[in-house]
UniProtKB/TrEMBL annotation:
Residues 154-361 form the ABC transmembrane type-1 domain. It comes from Actinacidiphila epipremni. Belongs to the binding-protein-dependent transport system permease family. CysTW subfamily. The gene is pstA. Residues 1-28, 379-429 are annotated as: Disordered. Part of the binding-protein-dependent transport system for phosphate; probably responsible for the translocation of the substrate across the membrane. This is Phosphate transport system permease protein PstA. InterPro entries: MetI-like, MetI-like_sf, Phosphate_PstA, Phosphate_transprt_permease. It is found in: Cell membrane. The chain crosses the membrane at residues 36-54, 61-83, 95-120, 153-179, 199-217, 224-242, 340-361. It is a multi-pass membrane protein. The keyword Iron does not apply. Gene3D superfamilies: MetI-like. Keywords: Cell membrane, Membrane, Phosphate transport, Transmembrane, Transmembrane helix, Transport. SUPFAM superfamilies: MetI-like.
């Protein structure tokens, strides 16, 4: 009998690619083809049975009832189909996954519907250049779309949201840092007040600023008063979101900074805030989205005007949401088209602000911008030049010390080189 191949018996590594049959990839997904068949089969069966019930068997009617009945029937049929291949926990997991994905699809469809409907309804006003470059000074309800625009509302929105951000971003970030770095009873009280203000109705914020700033302090209706009302709405959103983000920063980073001898303020400035930069940007975005679309506080505090006002302290100043509200109240089709065009402009403005915020602060922790990388390179070159100069200076000092040691003995009684001491003469005698 021939001896077995020693090489084949001792080989413990996998065969090289191309020497044998390729190993099939193993799928790590929890979904299989039967799951997709079950989803589509349950959907088709639920639609067919729902149509049969609504048209033949039962006196049901209405689109909403049709959708609800079909969805409930779909869940029941899908659970039955999945139960043939899976056990109880897997069936519940599949049902929960379908419900979550269905809710996400509904929200996405609602968002798409709002955006598409707004853009489609404002298609008559958006193509005109004067809609972006003119205000409503010379345009009335019966004027065509070639006259007038929403320039005054766009400029007013930018001024108001800029003032509101200047007020809320520093205060909101400082409050979030305080809630995380200085725990105590007062911090718990502030967190409770912030959570309560998150659900504050916008009309209450407008009434608060109207009563305190306009009636009590004598501030006239202006863009500044509207910015104060918008700040009241933005502040709890920014504080709450920033508080959650800063709380997620690992405590080991703080401990490492404290171990290196950094004080608390330097740890917060150089460790905590850069680590949570992306989340803090999201917090500012959420607050901006809440404030830029407010109508009730602006209606009570800013007034309404058809003229472009660049002064946020004096005179009424209109914003895009308020202009949309005033335009769509008119029964004239041209004014309604201007209203939807203004709403579409507001959507585009919010999108641009979100993109700008992501570009500015959306980098990961420790990732530097181009300017930061340039500053880091310049600082590294400067440090290298300084170390080279110091090393050169040390080398010259060493050479000088060596030359001096060769010329002069270290001690007059013990000459370093024989034959050159004071006890011998010049001729060595």
């Amino acid at each position: 009998m021939d001896a077995p191949d020693a090489t084949a018996a001792q080989r413990t590594t996998l065969p090289r690619r191309g020497t044998g049959a390729a190993e099939p990839r193993r799928s790590t997904s929890g979904l299989h083809d039967s799951d997709y068949f079950a989803v589509f089969g349950a959907a088709a069966a639920s639609l067919a049975l729902t149509w049969l019930f609504f048209s033949r068997l039962a006196p049901f009617s209405g689109l909403l009832g049709f959708v609800v009945f079909a969805y409930v029937l779909f869940l029941v049929l899908y659970a039955i189909l999945v139960s043939y291949d899976e056990d109880g926990p897997a069936v519940r997991d599949r049902i929960t996954s379908v419900i979550v994905h269905s809710l996400a699809a509904v929200l996405l469809l609602a968002l798409v519907f709002v955006v598409v409907y707004t853009m489609w309804s404002g298609r008559k006003a958006l193509p005109h250049l004067n809609f972006f470059t003119q205000d409503m000074t010379n345009a009335g309800p019966l004027q065509p779309l070639t006259i007038g625009g929403s320039r005054h509302a766009l400029i007013g929105t930018l001024i108001q949201i800029a003032i509101a951000l200047a007020l809320t971003v520093p205060v909101g970030l400082l409050a979030a840092v305080f809630l995380n770095e200085v725990p105590g009873r007062y911090a718990r009280l502030v967190r409770t007040v912030v959570e309560a203000m998150t659900a504050l109705p916008s009309i209450v914020a407008g009434l608060f600023v109207y009563a305190t700033a306009i009636l009590a302090l004598g501030v006239e209706k202006s863009g500044f008063a509207a910015s104060l009302a918008i700040s009241v709405m933005m502040l709890p959103i920014i504080i709450r979101a920033a508080d959650v983000v800063i709380r997620l920063v690992p405590g080991t980073l703080r401990e490492a900074s404290y171990a290196l001898g950094s004080p608390r303020w330097r740890t917060v400035w150089h460790v905590v805030l850069p680590t949570a930069r992306s989340g803090l940007t999201t917090a500012v975005i959420l607050g901006t989205a809440r404030g830029i679309g407010e109508t009730s506080p602006v209606l009570l505090t800013a007034g309404y005007t058809a003229v472009t006002n660049y002064d946020p302290v004096h005179g009424p100043m209109v914003s895009l949401p308020l202009a949309t509200f005033e335009f769509v109240k008119s029964p004239q089709p041209t004014m309604i088209a201007r209203g939807f065009g203004t709403a579409a402009l507001l959507l585009v403005l919010v999108l641009l602000l979100f993109v700008a915020a992501r570009l500015i602060g959306g980098r990961a922790a420790g990732e530097l911008s181009r300017r930061g990388v340039h500053r880091r390179v310049v600082a590294s070159r400067r440090d290298k030049r300084r170390m080279d100069e110091r090393r050169t200076a040390r080398g010259l000092a060493g050479v000088t010390a060596g030359a001096a040691a060769m010329s002069y003995p270290a001690h007059p009684d013990r000459p370093e080189h024989p034959g050159t001491g004071p006890a011998q003469g010049v001729d060595g005698s």
